[in-house]
Amino acid sequence: MAKVAIVGATGKVGQYAALSISRIPYVNEVQLYGRPGSEGILEGIARDLIDSFAATGTDSSVSWSCSIEDLKGSDVIIFTAGVPRKAHQTRNDLALENARIVKDFAEKIATIAPDSLLLMITNPVDIMTHVALKYSGKKSNEVFGIGTHLDSMRLKSAIASFFKVHVSEVHTRIIGEHGESMVPLWSATTIGGIQISNLPSFARVPIDEIMTQVKCSGQRIIASKGATVWGPGEAIGTLIRTILGNEDRILTVSAYIKAEVHNIGDVCIGVPVRINRSGVYPVPIRIEPLEVRNFQMSVEKIRRITKEVFNALENGEE
Length: 318
Ligand SMILES: NC(=O)c1ccc[n+]([C@@H]2O[C@H](COP(=O)([O-])OP(=O)(O)OC[C@H]3O[C@@H](n4cnc5c(N)ncnc54)[C@H](O)[C@@H]3O)[C@@H](O)[C@H]2O)c1
Ligand SMILES: O=C(O)C[C@H](O)C(=O)O
Description:
The protein is of the alpha/beta class. It has helices spanning 12-22, 39-56, 95-112, 125-136, 149-163, 207-225, 230-244, 289-314, and strands spanning 2-7, 27-33, 61-65, 76-79, 117-120, 143-145, 170-171, 174-175, 183-184, 190-191, 194-195, 249-257, 267-276, 279-282. The strands form four sheets. The protein has a six-stranded parallel sheet with strand order 3-2-1-4-5-6, with helices on both faces. A three-stranded antiparallel sheet has the order 7-10-11, with helices on one face. It has a three-stranded antiparallel sheet with strand order 12-13-14. Helix 5 packs across helix 6 (207-225). The longest helix is centred in the C-terminal third of the chain and has 26 residues, at 289-314. It is globular, with a radius of gyration of 19 Å. The structure holds nicotinamide-adenine-dinucleotide and (2S)-2-hydroxybutanedioic acid (LMR).
């Protein structure tokens, strides 16, 4: 059984993540953590969550706290604290503001929760994952981000819809930045176990249209309803279930790579990893030459912004 804490639990994604993880049978304690002053709202969220349990037969305990020491003993900490983007912004516009929040937190939990896994959601998630890794001093398998898992889900739905098949028949993944430079791996996409390019109808797939839809999905949802909530919340649920069930599934998350993709590394970015109770393990892969080139460009972009953020954090820049 496990204790899972949510940092930023008063936020939109934090609240839905609490509901999503409370339904995982391995979770016996959900802890809602918020900034000092948010005790009242945390209590309300906890009560609302507990009200749902009678309908779902959930049997977890729910606690709330504004004291960071209470995160001690968490098996996994889900980090959703920070500012979300407005529809006219890119995720990278949030980098420095959110990096300060992440750094401050990571330094504190280094001693409070040295054994916890840390799942980053806050955007820009690849950069926030690297900031959390650096300042928490944790091992690289213990700190990871939701990365391109949500983008991969979006692509999977779009492909299933085009081919009129159940989503479970589609296997695909997107690697790289959770952002504009993301790279769909058509070479790793199958429908009913058949490589997608071996299907005659592949020639009719509107690839550019589908990728625009995937890339713009977050922005479109933010423009119309203010925030993306259920997609990321369910993605968080999948990741936590995979970890606590020690499932060894291969999912695409933001993780620190050394050289696993064609010797490209020293960056936190979306890649296929094996996930289990002790964390994430990037899977060495070989992909098509065009995919390598696009991944390399995505890596260079993320490395550059990460470096700028690290420099600004070290120099105390505003
Ligand atoms: N990577 C993804 O797939 C994905 C998906 C959805 C949201 N997000 C990101 O998650 C974050 C939260 O999104 P949201 O919609 O829940 O936002 P929200 O505004 O509803 O919630 C933000 C939370 O962060 C807390 N917070 C804000 N500033 C803080 C600070 N200075 N110190 C400590 N805590 C602070 C707030 O109290 C609140 O709990 C954003 O960065 C958003 O971009 C990422
Ligand atoms: O788009 C956003 O800013 C939120 C999130 O990263 C998403 O893709 O839903």
